[in-house]
Specification:
This protein is of the alpha/beta class. The protein has eleven helices and 20 strands. Helix 1 packs across helix 3.
């Protein structure tokens, strides 16, 4: 491939493998979550790859849904969060499936929908996440009110689980019990509840469809690993400079690292301006020639410095692996997240636009 100072390699077949494994595991319909640019993996290539597996796609915003439609993705696209009344015309124009969480938006959508072709909607029931949706105590009344809006067709009912990735899943049971009274009157509507963690470990939450995100990309959201998943993303950079510093000399801004002895170092062309966490300063590691090498000093906006061993045979332009495998070693997204004091979701979605995305294989799937 042409030179790039830093790039990711996305294994689309790994993502398809994960989707198929999840679908076999649950036996349910699959709503593939591709919000936030498919968790940094590239929403359009991922959706093109999964069109033959997914029954529906889910995004967070109208803009994300439009991007998929403009790429000729024809499967249903669910917007997971309530939209604003001024967005209703775009929703109708691009045949998106919106989430309904309030009467005002529902009324505005009904006014612009076609009389001959009602727009399908899903109702978000707030069972305890308390960030969006119709309160579970009021959900039946709300569903009955929607029946007075003839241009809307309630296709689905769903909720968001707050603790499915925790060891203690007792609140999952609370949320499912709250939903149960509503589902007694679901009238054939699609019910979907399970995020990645619940998809893998809470079978009673599977209902008609599951809604995995992180697990599609080969990352386990919790300790349970009932099916084999393949990580899909590798992140690489290059060595841009090699030097030697004397005992007591410092490295990078603030000179927070002092060389304990004559030390070889290499500058790697990666920094927090690319989404590489600054919190890895003095604590993270990278792979060079299949060996782990520590980051020394502060991660800068554009570059970072790593310590080399005297025996390392390296040259400017050599490949450095930030996430992924090299030789017999591997640095995982989970490791980076733990070292950074955050979660894998943030690491993946913070990979910036300066990082070139490459895909293998490039797919041209006609089943959009």
């Amino acid at each position: 491939m042409p030179y790039s100072r830093t790039h990711t390699e996305i294994d689309l077949l790994a993502i398809k493998h994960n989707a198929e494994a999840i679908k076999r595991h649950t036996g349910n319909q699959l709503i593939a979550v591709v919000k936030a640019d498919a968790y940094g993996h590239g929403a359009v290539p991922v959706a093109e790859t999964l069109c033959s597996v997914a029954d529906m796609f889910a995004v967070a915003t109208v803009e994300e849904g439009i991007k998929l439609r403009q790429a000729d993705i024809r499967k249903p696209i669910l917007i997971l969060f309530s939209c604003l009344p001024m967005q209703v015309e775009e929703i109708v124009e691009f045949s998106l499936t919106p989430t309904i969480g309030d009467r005002e938006f529902a009324t505005a959508l009904n006014e612009v929908a076609s009389e001959t072709k009602p727009i399908k909607v899903h109702v978000n029931v707030n069972t305890g996440m308390n960030r969006s949706g119709v309160c579970w105590k009021e959900a039946l009344q709300f569903l009955n009110k929607l029946k007075t809006l003839p241009r809307l067709e309630v296709e689905g009912i769903f909720t968001h689980l707050a603790t499915a990735d925790e060891v203690d899943k007792s609140f999952v049971s609370v949320q499912l019990n709250r939903l149960a009274s509503i589902l007694a009157h679901k009238d054939g509507k699609m019910v979907h509840v399970a995020n990645s963690a619940a998809t893998l470990a809470v079978p009673e939450s599977h209902f008609d469809a599951v809604r995995p995100g992180l697990s599609l990309y080969g990352i386990y959201p919790a300790a349970e690993k009932p099916i084999p998943l393949k990580p899909a993303l590798t992140w690489k950079a290059r060595i841009g400079w090699i030097g030697s510093i004397s005992e007591g000399e410092g490295v990078s801004y603030g000179l927070t690292y002092k060389a304990p002895y004559q030390t070889r170092v290499a500058m790697v062309q990666i920094g927090y301006g690319d989404g590489y966490p600054r919190s890895l300063s003095g604590s993270g590691e990278v792979l060079i020639s299949g060996m782990r090498r520590p980051i020394v000093g502060r991660v800068c906006m554009d570059v970072s410095v790593v310590q080399l061993e005297p025996s390392d045979e390296v040259s400017i332009g050599d490949e450095v692996v930030l996430i992924g495998k090299q030789g017999n070693e591997e640095i995982t997204v989970d490791e980076i997240a733990q070292c950074s004091g955050t979660i894998p979701y943030e690491i993946l979605t913070q990979i910036g636009p300066r990082v070139k995305r490459t895909f293998r294989p490039v797919t041209h799937n006609n089943e959009h």
